[in-house]
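Handoff note, outgoing to incoming analyst
You'll be picking up this chain. Sequence as last confirmed:
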Amino acid sequence: AIIGAVSDDGKVRVMGMGKSVSKGVKRGVVLNIEETAAAIQEAVYQAQLESKLTFKEVYVGIAGQHIKSMKNRHSKYIQSADSEITQADIDELLNDMHNIALDAGEEIIHVIPQSYTVDNEGGVKQPVGMFGKRLEANFHIVVGEISSAKHIFKCIERAGLKVKKMILEPLASASSVLTSDEKEIGVAMVDIGGGTTDIAIYYDGILRHTAVIPFGGDVITRDIKEGCSILHRQAEKIKVQFGTALGDAAPEDQVVSVPGISGASLK
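Most recent structure output, in case you need it:
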């Protein structure tokens, strides 16, 4: 959990942070309401303690293997007498995208405009104020399971909080770490978490693709646990203490000793 304050220049200043063991969640999906709510409470308590601030509304990230993204295109004819495009025209296209047909049990999380075409002029990023008879837009749409979102809302409420807005985690991470220049020249943001790996790809300042892969650092921990026949907490400690992202940087002759359980010999 992170508490932040928006400064005069529009940047967010971190006031406090808190963390807890992610119990009740597997690969970004809530499997135990009570355990997840308790973990949220602990993380929020630590953040409030550090910042000396209290709050009731939160922005919450959503991920998981149920998340999928799609592209869609929609158009409309401009009805104003002088053919000037207004924000109302943009909003109409956005609202229409929120009403597209989905599979049973799914809902739209985000509708993100990518680019517009005014008459035959493509690649328009901001069409408001332009003149034309026909406005067309390309959208990036993020879809998730209704039940997964409801589980998150319930956990937040059990923790004594209220969800102000739900955000796809790759988008939140990208907004936090990527600069406008990086998004312009092209960049892939890869956030490897415990249960999922989040991906957001930008080019020409436009979000091109998002994905949530249901594999993360826990896969490595599980491999160490099973390969060495040790406890999960021991495997996690070995991964964090001795692991390296670059195989060439790891010493080939390093030996790691693991304490035995209940008096058993070292491994």
